[in-house]
Structure formats: C-alpha cells, structure tokens
Amino acid sequence: MRVVALAGGTGSAKLLRGLASLVRDLTVVSNVGDNFWAQGLYVCPDVDIAMYTLAGVANPATGWGLRGDTFRTLSQLGALGEETWFALGDLDMATHLVRTRLLKEGRSLTQATDSLRMAFGVSQKILPLTDDHVETRVVTRAGSLHLQEFWVRERGRPAVRKVEYSGAGKASPTPSVRKAVAQADRIVVCPANPVTSVGPMLAVPGFLEDLSSSRGRVTALSPMVGRAPFSGPAGKLMKAFGVRPDSAGVAKMYSRFLDAVVIDSRDADMAPEIERTGVKCATSDTLMKTPDDEVRLSKELLTA
Ligand code: FO1
C-alpha cells in the first residue's frame, strides 16, 4: 500500500512513527509555513521533526530538536549579544548548516531535504509541500508576526486578529508531491494544527484540488479533544481563522477532500454533525501516550 502522510509538528511525528511501523511505502508531505531564518540558517521545523522522529533521534521531552542536544553555541551567541529566544541546539545546528549550504549552492528544498533524510538513515521520503517560500504570519494588534515569533518569542500571548500565508498564492506544490498524492492508495492527514500546519498547504494553489481528485482514500486524525488541541496554539488560531475549535470544525475545514475522520471518544456527540458533511466519522482514544497508541491509531486511519 502506498501511503502519503500530510504532516506538521510534534503531534504528527508520533503518528508518522506508527505509520512507518506498518507501511513500507510511506511518503511524508511536510508543511513549510513555519520555516524560519535563525542565526543566518534556514530552519524547517516540520521537516526536521519528521526526519528526527523517523530516524529515532528526536527529543521526546520538547517535541522538537535532537535527543541529548546541548546549547553551548546558543549561550555563546547570547554572550555576543545575539537574540537567543529561538533555541538552536549544537547538534540541530549541523542540520541547518548543511541545509543552508545546499540551498546556497542552488539545490531546491526538496533536494536538500532528501540529502539530509538519507544522511540520517531515514528510508521514507520526506517532501516539503513546495520549494517556494511560504510563511505563516499571525496578525496581532502589535503587528504581523512570523509564527515562530508569535509562538516561541511571544509565547502565543498576543490577541490574534487573523492568520495569513504569505507567499502561498504564488507557490505551487512540487512535482514530487503531486505525483505522490496522485499515486497514493491512502492519504493520512496527521493530527496537525489545522491553521498553522495544514492551512498553509491548502493555501498553495492546486493542492486542495490534488487532494480532492486523488484516487486514494483520505483520512484524518483530529488533533482536538473537546475544545483543546493535543498541543500548541491551535484553539486560539482556529478561532481567529474562523474555524470552530473542535473536531467538527476540523472535519468541516477538510470536508472538500476528506473521506473519513477519527475523533476522540469523548467527542462522540459530534459524530452525527460530522457525518452530515459527508465525512465518515469513527471514534477512538486519540491521545498517543505510548508507541502502542501510535500503531493502534495508524491502523484505524488506514482502515477508516
Ligand atoms: N519551540 C519552542 O517552543 N522554543 C524553541 O526555542 C524552539 C526552537 C526550535 C528550533 C528548531 C526547530 O526545528 C524547532 C524549534 N521549536 C521551538 C519548535 C517550533 O517552534 C514549533 O513547535 C514548530 O514550528 C511547530 O511545528
């Protein structure tokens, strides 16, 4: 079975691990909206968390970065008067150094990602949705902030007016992404933030149509339990984006391409409303606390 997984950050990575244990032909299509320049280096958090997780070297404590990493270079940068709110680890920095060099040498982000994932011994393909620069920006009363500025530097505190995907209108999905989606038997939308991880992908012209016309069944694991996401700022941003911050809101946002959704058992009362939008709804314990949960939910998504 050929499986394509649309992935964002931490929540997605856990499901990717489950899927990878079940499926030989797995391709990860990664959000690029939170890519960020830090210390002159190009950082791709969603690509990297997928790569580190599949390589078995991710830091489980933070949900980003590498296990056992240290921050000596960051301390020294602080001592030199540089901004250090975006914490690049000593080992993580090597990934960004290689990626930035490859890009400067003229390689595309797809090519740079492929070199890196092979160097990490990851057998699954990891494809950035686009090679164009797309940036998720959060418009607050204090102005427009990059998602990393909003979430990491400002700790998600500012009141949100709207969310924008700068550059998305002029971007296009890469040919590799389009081919993977067209040939997939299953497309799984990981439990990613609908506004900051899946939204930037859907904003790239052509991708929504690729998903809706794909011959493979499209299933999603909702990242919401009640009105709260598993992790991160999803609830607040969903409200600002005009999406109801619960599983019914997620299903509605994806309804143009979604065949089935798995929501948490605690939200079972939302199932009839979801099914009225034409999306099949299954319920489960959606929290991934153990590797067994990751595999169980992966199986449910592959059969939903
Ligand atoms: N998240 C934080 O909360 N604080 C950080 O200092 C931080 C640094 C960082 C460095 C590299 C990287 O790949 C991710 C990093 N993240 C950090 C995570 C990131 O901000 C977001 O969680 C993702 O962009 C969401 O998918």
List the helices and strands and how they pair.
Elements: E1 2-7, H1 10-22, E2 25-30, E3 36-38, E4 41-43, H2 45-55, H3 72-79, H4 90-104, H5 109-119, E5 125-128, E6 135-140, E7 143-146, H6 147-153, E8 160-166, H7 175-183, E9 186-189, H8 194-202, H9 207-212, E10 217-221, E11 224-225, E12 228-229, H10 234-240, H11 247-254, E13 260-264, H12 271-276, E14 280-284, H13 291-303
Parallel strand pairs: 1-2, 1-9, 2-5, 9-10, 10-13, 13-14
Antiparallel strand pairs: 3-4, 6-7, 6-8, 11-12
This protein binds ligand FO1.
Offer a few descriptive terms.
304 residues, alpha/beta, Helicase, Ruva Protein, domain 3, seven-stranded parallel sheet, three-stranded antiparallel sheet, 13 helices, 14 strands, globular, binds ligand FO1
What's this, in brief?
The chain has 304 residues and is α/β, with parallel strands linked by helices. The chain has helices spanning 10-22, 45-55, 72-79, 90-104, 109-119, 147-153, 175-183, 194-202, 207-212, 234-240, 247-254, 271-276, 291-303, and strands spanning 2-7, 25-30, 36-38, 41-43, 125-128, 135-140, 143-146, 160-166, 186-189, 217-221, 224-225, 228-229, 260-264, 280-284.
The strand count comes to 14
Give the rounded overall mean pLDDT: 95
Fourth CATH level, the homologous superfamily of the largest domain: CofD-like domain
How many independent structural domains? 2
State the low-pLDDT regions, or none: none
Q: Which structural class best describes the helix and strand composition?
A: alpha/beta
Beta strand %: 15-25%
Q: Strand order across the biggest sheet?
A: 5-2-1-9-10-13-14
Q: Helix count, per DSSP?
A: 13
Query: What would CATH call the class of the largest domain?
Result: Mainly Alpha
Helical coverage, percent range:
40-55%
> Rg, please?
18 Å
Which molecules are bound besides the chains? ligand FO1
How far the N terminus sits from the C terminus, by CA atoms, comes to 15 Å
